[in-house]
Design brief:
Chain lengths: 367, 367
C-alpha cells in the first residue's frame, strides 16, 4: 500500500471510531451482548470449576476472580467474555438457537483461561485483570495443573454434550489450542531476539495465532452449532481472525500511546519492557533514518530503567518511523476484511449486527 | 488384615511371581502384546506429533525418543506402550475389533506423555527413559507448550474419529486428566511435608490418581470401543486401577531394594531423595520402636549427602518397620482384586488372557 493510501485508511478508521464513540450505540449494544453472554455462560463455567478437586479448584476460582487468594468470596472480574459472546452471536447470526450453544461457549472460555494461566507462568507476568497472577499466589505447579485440568474440562463439556455439532466443535477447539500454543512459543522465542532481527510477517503471524485464532474459532464454533455449511464456517472463522488481528493492532497502539488514566497502566508500558509489539516492529522494519534512530534508542532486549521522558522519546521515534500510522491503517484494513468475510457467511446485514458490534467493541477498547 | 494373613499373602504373591518367572511364558506373551500395540499405535502417534508446528514438534519428537536433542534421528525408546496395549487388549477381551480402536489407544498414550512432560517440569526431574528430560533441553516454556499441544492432539484424535464410542471415550479421558492432575498436585504438596506427617491413605489415594487412573481409563476406553455396558466398563476401569496400584507398590519396592544392575538406577535411589514412597510411609505409620528409629534416620524432607552404607541402614529400618512386607502384601492384594474385577467384565478366562498378562507384566517389572 502507498503512504497516502495508508494515511487515508487511518483517517477513515479514526473517523469511524469517532462517530461510533459520539453515538455510543454500538458500544452500548456490545455491552448488553457481553453482559448477556456472561450471564448465560457463568453457571457452566462455575460447574466446570466446582467439579475440579482440591487445589485446582482453588486456583481456578481465584483466577476467574470468584475468590480472593485466602479463599474468601470475591465479586469477581472474570474477564469480558468476548469469546463466549462471539459463539452465541454467531449462532444467532446464522439463525440457530443460542441457548443450545451455551456449553460450547463455556468450553471456548475455559480454553481461553487455561492458556492465560499457562502463559502467565511462562512469561513470569505478575498481574492479570488487576490482580496478582495465579502462579505468584499458588506457585508454578498448581498454576500449570489448574491450566491442564481446565483444558480437560473444556473438552469434557463438549464430549458430554448431546449436540450433533459437538464433535466438530471439539476437533476445531483442539486444533485451535495447538495454534495458540504455537503463537505463544513464537512469542517466547521472539522475546529473546534483538528487535531489529524480528520481521513484521512473523510478528503478524504470531499475533494471528495468539489472538486471532481463538476469536476465529469462537465464531466458527457458533456457526457449527447453528448448522452452517463448511464455507460459512470458514468465513466466520476468517471474520473472527481478522477482527482479532485488528484488536491486537489497536491494543498494541494503546500499549504505547494509551491514556494511563483509561488503561490503568503507566504511559508507554509496552516500551518500558521493550515488548516487540506490532507498531514497534513495523517502525523498525520501515527502513530509513527514523528506523535507525529508533533502533539506537531501543537497544538490546530486556527491561530498562528509564524515566517517562526517555520513554516518550522512544514513542515519538516509533511514530516518526511510521509505526503508529501503520498499525492504525492495518487495524482498519483488517476490520474491513472482517466485515467482508462476515457478509459471506451472513448476507443479511441485520443478522450480522451482534457480531459486528462485538468486533467494533473489541477494536475500540480504551478509546 | 492380621499380621499372619499379610505374611501369607506376601508368601503367595512371591510364589506366584517366582513360578511365572521360571516359566516366563506370561512375560513372553506380554512382550508380544506390547510389541504389537507399539507397532499398531506408532503411526497414529507420529501423525499426531508431525501435525504439530515448529518448536512443539521438535520437543515431542525428542520426548518420544525419535530424535536427539540436535534434531538428528534416534532409534527411540518411546516407552513400553502399556496403556495402548491395555486399550487394545480390553477391546479384544470384550469381543470388539482392536483395529478400530487404534486411534483411541494413541489418544491414551498421547495423554500419558503430556502428563510426563509437565510432571518433569514441575518435579525438576532431569532424566526420563535414560535421557535428559525435555525441559532441561528445550526450556520450561517449550516443554509446557508441547505438553499442552499433545493434550489437545489426544482429544482431537477422538473428536475427529467416526467411532460411536469416541465421545464417551473423550469424556472419560478428559475426566481422567483431571484426576491425573489431582494426583500430581497432591504429590507436589506431599514433597514439602515432613514424612511423619504424611498419612498412608492419602499416599495410596495419590498413587491411585497418578498411576491407577490412567491404566483404568485405558481399559475402560477399550471396553467402550467394544460396546461394553456400563457395568462392564466400570469393572474394567477398576481392574486397571487395581493393577496400577499393584504396579506402583512394586515399583516403590524396586525403588528401594531393586538391583541397580537391572534398574539402571543407584541402590536405594528413592531413599537418597527422601521420596515419600508407599513402603516408607507404611513403615513410618506402623508405630512402635522400628517406626521411631526410621523417623530419626529419615529426618526432614529434601535430598541428603549420604553413602551407600547409610542408605542401606535406612532401607533396613524400612524393612524392620514392616514397609517391605506391607507393600508386597498390598501389591498381591490389589492384583487379586484386579483379577476379581476383571472376571466381572470378562467371565471367559481365555478372553481375559491378554489383560492378565499385561497386568502381571507391569507388576513384575524389574523382577
Amino acid at each position: 500500500m502507498t503512504q497516502p493510501a495508508v494515511r487515508e485508511q487511518a483517517r477513515v478508521a479514526a473517523e469511524v471510531a469517532a462517530a461510533a464513540a459520539a453515538e455510543g450505540y454500538e458500544a452500548q449494544e456490545a455491552s448488553a451482548i457481553l453482559a448477556q453472554a456472561r450471564a448465560a455462560v457463568d453457571p457452566e463455567l462455575r460447574r466446570a470449576v466446582e467439579a475440579l478437586p482440591g487445589s485446582m479448584r482453588r486456583v481456578a476460582r481465584y483466577h476467574f476472580g470468584w475468590e480472593h487468594a485466602d479463599g474468601t468470596p470475591a465479586t469477581g472480574n472474570a474477564g469480558k467474555a468476548v469469546r463466549p459472546a462471539l459463539v452465541l452471536a454467531a449462532v444467532r447470526a446464522l439463525g440457530g438457537r443460542p441457548e443450545r450453544a451455551v456449553r460450547a461457549a463455556a468450553a471456548v472460555e475455559l480454553t481461553h483461561n487455561f492458556t492465560l494461566l499457562h502463559d502467565d507462568v511462562m512469561d513470569r507476568d505478575a498481574t492479570r485483570r488487576h490482580r496478582p497472577t495465579a502462579w505468584t499466589v499458588f506457585g508454578d505447579a498448581d498454576a500449570i495443573l489448574a491450566g491442564d485440568a481446565i483444558q480437560a474440562q473444556a473438552q469434557r463439556l463438549l464430549a458430554e454434550e448431546g449436540h450433533p455439532a459437538a464433535s466438530a466443535a471439539a476437533a476445531r477447539l483442539a486444533a485451535c489450542v495447538v495454534e495458540l500454543c504455537e503463537g505463544q512459543a513464537v512469542d517466547v522465542a521472539l522475546e529473546g531476539r534483538d528487535p531489529t532481527d524480528v520481521s513484521l510477517p512473523e510478528t503478524l503471524a504470531m499475533a494471528e495465532a495468539k489472538t486471532g485464532a481463538l476469536l476465529g474459532c469462537a465464531c466458527a464454533v457458533g456457526g457449527l452449532y447453528a448448522g452452517a455449511d463448511d464455507e460459512e464456517v470458514e468465513a466466520l472463522d476468517a471474520f473472527g481472525r481478522c477482527a482479532g488481528l485488528a484488536f491486537q493492532l489497536i491494543d498494541d497502539v494503546i500499549g504505547i500511546w494509551g491514556d494511563p488514566v483509561r488503561t490503568g497502566k503507566p504511559a508507554c508500558a509496552d516500551l518500558a519492557v521493550r515488548k516487540k509489539s506490532l507498531p514497534v516492529v513495523a517502525a523498525l522494519a520501515s527502513g530509513g533514518a527514523a528506523a535507525d534512530e529508533l533502533a539506537a534508542l531501543y537497544g538490546p532486549p530486556g527491561p530498562k530503567k528509564e524515566g517517562v521522558a526517555e520513554l516518550e522519546a522512544i514513542a515519538l521515534a516509533v511514530e516518526r518511523a511510521g509505526g503508529r500510522d501503520w498499525a492504525q491503517a492495518q487495524a482498519a484494513d483488517h476490520m474491513s476484511r472482517a466485515v467482508d468475510r462476515l457478509s459471506q457467511a451472513v448476507p443479511v446485514p441485520e443478522a450480522a449486527d451482534g457480531l459486528l458490534s462485538l468486533a467494533e467493541f473489541v477494536t475500540r477498547r480504551g478509546y
